[in-house]
Structure formats: C-alpha cells, structure tokens
Design brief:
- There is one protein chain.
- Helices cover 41% and strands 8% of the residues.
- The protein has 179 residues and is of the alpha/beta class.
- It has a single domain, classed as Alpha/Beta hydrolase fold, catalytic domain (Rossmann fold).
- Strand 1, helix 1 and strand 2 form a beta-alpha-beta unit.
- The longest helix is centred in the N-terminal third of the chain and has 14 residues.
- 26% of the residues are buried.
Length: 179
C-alpha cells in the first residue's frame, strides 16, 4: 500500500508503480479527501482516516501488507502500524521534511506560518507552483505539475483544511489552522 502526501494524490506513485508491480501487488489510493476520493464530512483526524484504510484492506481481503508512505500519508501510516503492527511485513516511512526538496529552505516552519491556506488551497495552480516550483531545488517537469493540478479536484482544499483543523495542535490552539 502506497500513501501519498500533500498536495499529491495516488498519482505521485505513477513513476515507480510499474517497477514495484513487478514484485508486489500495489495499491496506491487517494487519502480521504484528496484526488478522486470522497470529500464529504466525517472523521478527518489522521487516526480516524487510518482506521478507515485498515477497514478498506479488510474489505478487499488483504491481511498482511507492505507499506510505503510519504508526508501526510506517513501520519496515517503511523496510526495504521500502531493499531496492528503484525499486519505490516515491511515499511518504508517517508517523512514530511522539506530539506530533501530544497536544503536552503530548512528549517521550514516559516513557509506555512501565516500562509493564506484558504486562498492557496482553493487555487491548485498557485498551490502546485509553490509546492513543486519554489519549494523544490529541482522543480518537477511541467507534465507532472499539470497532472498534480488536475488531481486537485473541487473540494480537496476543504478536505485538507478539515485535516488541519482536526490535528491535535489545531485543537489546542498551538498552530494557525484555518477556522
């Protein structure tokens, strides 16, 4: 199972899926609210979304699985593994750290402090240009940026805000999550 980050969708894994599929049964899904997934109300805590993914694996008959996670997907993967580590055969745990993208930007807390998330999250062109242009030492090819824009479907920005508002730091008032 491959879990993407923000602002991606399942499609971020497209370049590696053919090779992985030679050795594994691959499931690359959209996190709840991202890409082509359902964007309605519900539990947007990472823990809740992780339990929904475990239920999905149960529904499609997958008991044990390998996990490859990145960024926001890693937050949900942490909960999946904590809930039932015995099911995980191996885990590649990607981080949320931007140093990999552009070392000159570390530390990066300032990048999102005061960012107009409502404006940025509702404008996929602006968001993808920022994330995959300015934040990257080596910007993504135009075709990949265009696909990322396409995958940022109507409602995705609101779903991402729901994740932000449901995080522990948002509930305690220790970050600038949107109201």
């Amino acid at each position: 199972m491959l879990l993407h980050g923000i602002p991606q969708s399942w499609h971020m894994w497209a370049p590696v899926l053919p090779e992985l599929a030679r050795h594994f049964r691959c499931i690359a899904i959209d996190l709840k609210g991202y890409g082509q997934s359902h964007k309605g109300c519900g539990d947007y805590r990472h823990e809740g979304a992780a339990m929904q993914m475990l239920a999905l694996l149960d529904t499609i008959g997958i008991g044990r699985y390998a996990l490859f996670s990145h960024d926001r997907g890693t937050m949900q993967a942490d909960y999946m593994v904590a809930a039932d580590a015995g099911r995980v055969t191996r885990w590649i745990r990607g981080s949320q750290h931007f140093v990999r993208f552009h070392p000159d930007l570390a530390p990066q807390e300032h990048l999102f402090t005061g960012l107009d998330t409502r404006g940025v999250l509702q404008d996929p062109v602006r968001l993808m240009t920022y994330m995959f242009g300015r934040l990257c030492k080596y910007p993504l090819p135009r075709e990949q940026v265009a696909r990322a824009i396409q995958e940022w479907r109507p409602g995705t920005g609101l779903a991402v805000e729901r994740y932000f508002r449901s995080s522990p730091s948002a509930r305690t008032g220790s970050n600038a999550a949107p109201a």
